[in-house]
Amino acid sequence: MDWMFHHINLPAVNVQETRTFLRDVIGLQEGHWIYPDRPGELHHDDDSIAYFGRANRGLHVVRSIVSFARDNGFMHNPTVGGHIALSVPDLKVVKARLDAAGTPYSDAGVYAMSGVHQIYVYDPSFNVIEINQTVTPLPSEKLDQQDLRAEIQLHHAAMTVLDLASSVAFYRDLIGLGEPTVNRRSAIFRNSGLAICLTCLTSGYADDNAAAPTSRDPYFTLAFSDIEPVKERLERAEIPNSGIVSDPIDGKESIFVYAPSMRLMAVVGS
Ligand SMILES: [Fe+2]
Questions:
Q1: Alpha helices in the chain (DSSP H)
Q2: How far is the CA of 42 from the centre of ligand 1 (A)?
Q3: Which of 204, 212, 219, 208 is nearest to 264 (CA)?
Q4: Is the pLDDT of residue 51 over 80?
Q5: Ligand 1 centroid to 221 CA: how many Å?
Q6: Do 44 and 137 meet the contact criterion of CB atoms below 8 Å apart?
Q7: What are phi and psi for residue 226, nearest 5 degrees?
Q8: What does DSSP assign to residue 114?
Q9: How far is the CA of 216 from the centre of ligand 1 (A)?
Q10: Of 82-91, 111-120, 164-173, 213-222, which range is least confident?
Q11: Could you tell me the distance, in angstroms and rounded to a whole number, from the CA of residue 48 to the centre of ligand 1?
């Protein structure tokens, strides 16, 4: 099945601090969230969400809301720990496979973003994954109000898993991401220049990957036409970063940096 990134949910202890970092240092432009007609209990305010992107795609910076699952009748709390959200053309197919496998999921329906049907499911390592489908395109008058300059290019995302074989089976067979490239400690699913990397942090990983920053938490990379200005802003702000290194997934020039709340991210030259 075809897939693409819809958004990365990036947890933040202090949303304002992460908003300032992404806007003023990384150089992203804030976007405007488009709500459905009947939103759920989203707890959205300036201290609980910052949004970068266009048409609800991109980066969702959120403060964890401990009651979020209960408030919305979900099994999963998508505000805790962050998550990767993938769009698929037919969510029914994914739900049918999860049902057949007896894998529970939270079917949120259209509750947070206009026209987007979302489900949440745990992968075998208890990473929350969101799968969604745009069931109603945004009205043109709302789309016209969205600023093209706020658009974000999510390049790849990575998460750690506890067991590579069961994780590969989950993402390949139940979510439907296709056949990955499998190495000793990682598996990479690719689609149209995008990539999702599963990494198993078994002993010896650090020795084998000394040059590649990693994180127990999910992380993501953003594609920029030129990463040099980001490097200059990081240096001016005296924010520690990797400098320009080779991206471990596709070898492009990248800069790894910890966003506030110690969330690893990278910018990569496109
Ligand atoms: Fe999400």
A1: 15-20, 68-72, 91-101, 140-144, 164-169, 205-208, 228-236
A2: 11
A3: 219
A4: yes
A5: 17
A6: no
A7: -145, 120
A8: T
A9: 19
A10: 213-222
A11: 14
Average pLDDT, the chain: 93
Give the pLDDT band (50/70/90) at residue 212.
low
pLDDT in tens, 119-134: 999 999 999 999 999 9
* Domain range list for the chain: 4-148, 149-269
Structure tokens at 225: 């036409």
* CA of residue 9 to ligand 1 center, whole Å: 5
Ligand 1 centroid vs 7 CA: distance in angstroms? 7
Task: Tell me which DSSP letter residue 184 carries.
Answer: S
HSE (CB half, 13 Å, CA atoms) of 94? 30
C-alpha to C-alpha distance for 87 and 89, rounded to whole angstroms: 7
Looking at the domain covering 4-148, what would its CATH class be? Answer: alpha beta
Q: 149-269: what fold? A: 2,3-Dihydroxybiphenyl 1,2-Dioxygenase; domain 1 (3.10.180)
Q: Which residue carries 């099945």 as its tokens?
A: 1
Give CA separation, 220 vs 9, 57, 256, in Å. Answer: 10, 14, 10
Same fold, 4-148 and 149-269: yes
Q: CA 117 to CA 113: how far, in whole Å?
A: 8
Report pLDDT for 138: 87
In degrees and rounded to multiples of 5, residue 52 shows phi and psi of: -125, 120
C-alpha 56 – ligand 1 centre gap (Å): 10
The structure tokens listed for 42 are 């989203």
